[in-house]
Amino acid sequence: MKRAQFLMLAAVSFAACAAETPSDLLEGYEEVDATTILDAPSAIPGTYSPQNRDLVARGEYLVELLGCGACHTNGALVGDPDFDRPLAGSATGLAYTDPMGEKRPGVIYPSNITPDDETGVGAWTDEQIANAIRAGIGRHGSRRIAWMPWQGYAIISDDDVDAIVAYLRTIKPVKHQVPAEVEPGKRAKHPFVYFGVYRSKT
Ligand code: HEC
User: Fold this and answer.
1) What residue ranges do the domains of the chain occupy?
2) Where are the beta strands (DSSP E) in 38-143?
3) Of 170, 171, 169, 168, nearest to 84 (Cα)?
4) For a substitution probing ligand 1, which of 145, 153, 168 has the most ligand atoms within 8 Å of its CB?
5) Which atom of ligand 1 is nearest to the CA of 164?
């Protein structure tokens, strides 16, 4: 297991009020440890043909390399991953509007990408999965997926995206429904983290 070297802020309460100084702005948040990046789970034998062995192995390598588990595994965003349910979605969300400026930012919860038919991507077509990865086209229609770094995945080759899709079909299906997206202004009932980059005004 490897550790990434970046820090995040995790929301622990929703009591933060409109504030004026930087320290007040972080009221209601706590600083958490560096994120844990998980190994990709192994393909289940018998879920793919011998001819696809190399393709599936490449998909596993790419999913690990591209850090999919850092968001899509419960607990990984705050460094306490659920090793029994890798890639089965996160009940900790990502704020996608400014939590410093808004009391209630919009929050999205990284989805379950195991092949469970109801709560994962088991019923998605290969093309739908590929479009989510390379173009950020998800279940929210025209809006591109917030936070998922699909811009960085946009030039993944057809062969490589096929390998990722083939691999995702071979891992253990896990029934786990992640919380629904929270629109800005609504109260998030599940915790969330916020990644931010700030520039000084001077
Ligand atoms: C920085 C966090 C992050 C990373 C890293 C990330 N994703 Fe996502 N992913 C998300 C979020 C957030 C969503 C949208 C959830 C929603 O629409 O409700 C998403 C959605 C998806 C979807 C659409 C499925 C669905 O039900 O919404 C697929 C497929 C997917 N990701 C695959 C991947 C793969 C494969 C990788 C690695 C190559 C990856 N993701 C890396 C955050 C991430």
Assistant:
1) 2-194
2) 93-95, 107-108
3) 171
4) 145
5) 35
Q: 33-54 pLDDT, tens per residue?
A: 666 667 899 999 999 999 999 9
Q: What are the tens digits of pLDDT across the range 127-145?
A: 999 999 999 998 766 678 8
C-beta 133 within 6 A of ligand 1: yes
Q: Whose CA is nearest to atom 11 of ligand 1?
A: 110
Q: Which residues contact 3 (CB under 8 A, 6 or more apart)?
A: 34, 35, 36, 37
**Among candidates 20, 188, 7, which has minimal Cα distance to 109?**
188
Pocket of ligand 1 contains residue 66 by CB under 6 Å:
yes
Q: Is the CB of 108 under 6 A from ligand 1?
A: yes
User: Residues 83-101: pLDDT tens digits?
Assistant: 899 999 999 999 999 877 8
| Nearest-CA residue for atom 5 of ligand 1 | 68
Judging by DSSP bridges, how do beta strands 192-194 and 93-95 pair with one another?
parallel
- Give the ligand 1 atom nearest the CA of 129: 29
What distance in Å separates the CA atoms of residue 75 and residue 58, rounded to the nearest whole number?
26
Answer whether 38 contacts ligand 1 (Cβ < 6 A): no
Predicted local confidence at residue 30, as pLDDT = 76
Residue 75, by phi and psi: left (phi above 0), alpha (psi -120 to 50) or beta?
left
